[in-house]
Structures are given as structure tokens and as C-alpha cells.
Specification:
By secondary structure, the chain is α+β, with helices and mostly antiparallel strands. 49% of the residues lie in helices and 21% in strands. The chain has a three-stranded antiparallel beta sheet with strand order 1-2-3. Strand 2 and strand 3 form a beta hairpin.
Length: 111
């Protein structure tokens, strides 16, 4: 079975109503990678800035309804993976705190 077939089957289980295959494999659709995320909101919507190593690579604006839907879908997806794997994923805020604590313990921080 190819990676594309496996991914399609996995996504069909996790998100059957999503047109995920077109989004992942259509070369006309931009593909972004981010290892940082910044969020803000105005009176009409939520703004998400995706960044890679501190450099913004894309923005996404969502209505409040869609932002809440995205939050629920992502939470459900990650919770299912954590449950099946037995691994709890740390948030970037948790990792930052742990790294700061480790640096203080090692005397590598001004704190």
C-alpha cells in the first residue's frame, strides 16, 4: 500500500467529512510547515500567524465559529492519538517552561 493510500485510509477514519486528499496532494494548493504559532483576534475573526524558526510563513483568518470548530477537531484528533499511543504530547508553552527550568538548574540562565 502506498503512503498516499495509507494516508487516505487514516484520514478517512479520523476525519471522514474532510476533502483531505485534495488538500494534501494538489500541487496548486500551498503547503506550509510551521513550528511556531501566534494567535490574535479582532471584533470579527481570529488571526493565526504560522512561523518557522521565528519567520512568519503564512497567515490564516477564521470566523469565530470556524476557529471553535477547528479547536474541537484538533483537540479530538490529538486526544485520540494520545489515547492510542499512551503518549501525552506537550504544548510548546509546556516545553518552553521545562527548557527554562532546565537551564536554571544547569546555571545557564539569568533567572
Amino acid at each position: 500500500m502506498s503512503d498516499k493510500e495509507t494516508l487516505g485510509k487514516t484520514n478517512a477514519i479520523l476525519a471522514p467529512s474532510q476533502p483531505i486528499e485534495k488538500g494534501l496532494f494538489d500541487p496548486e494548493i500551498p503547503h506550509l510547515y510551521a513550528n511556531q504559532i501566534f494567535v490574535g483576534m479582532g471584533n470579527c475573526d481570529v488571526s493565526i500567524v504560522l512561523a518557522q524558526n521565528g519567520r512568519p510563513v503564512g497567515t490564516l483568518n477564521l470566523s469565530f465559529n470556524l476557529a471553535k470548530t477547528l479547536n474541537n477537531l484538533l483537540s479530538e484528533l490529538v486526544e485520540k492519538l494520545e489515547e492510542k499511543s499512551g503518549v501525552r504530547f506537550l504544548t510548546t508553552m509546556e516545553l518552553d517552561r521545562l527548557l527554562r527550568e532546565a537551564m536554571v538548574e544547569e546555571g545557564q540562565s539569568d533567572e
